[in-house]
Amino acid sequence: MEYGILSILPPLIAILLALTTKQVFISLILGIFSGTLIITDWSFFAAVNMTLEEIVAIFSEGWITKTIIFSFMVGGLITVISASGGVQGFIEYLTKKRDVVKDKKGALLLAYITGLVIFIESSITSLVAGTVARPLTDKYKVSREKLAYVCDSTSAPVCGLIPLNGWGAMLMGVIGVQIANGVVEGTAAELLAKSLPFQFYSIIAIIAVGYYIMTGNDWGPMAKAEKRATEEGLLLRKGATPMVSEEATATPPKEGVTPNMWNMILPLVVLISMMPLSLYITGEGNILQGSGSTSVFWAVITAVTFAGFLYVLTGIMNLKEYIDYVYQGIGAIVPVAILLITAFAIGNVIGYLETGEYMASLVEGRVSGAFGPAIVFIMASLMAFATGTSWGTFGIMMPIGIQMAVAMGAPLYPTIGAVVSGGIMGDHCSPISDTTIISSMASASDHIDHVNTQLPYALANGALALVLYLAAGFIM
Question: Where is the chain membrane-spanning (predicted)?
Answer without folding.
Answer: 24-48, 68-94, 106-129, 198-214, 264-283, 295-313, 325-350, 370-392, 404-425, 455-475
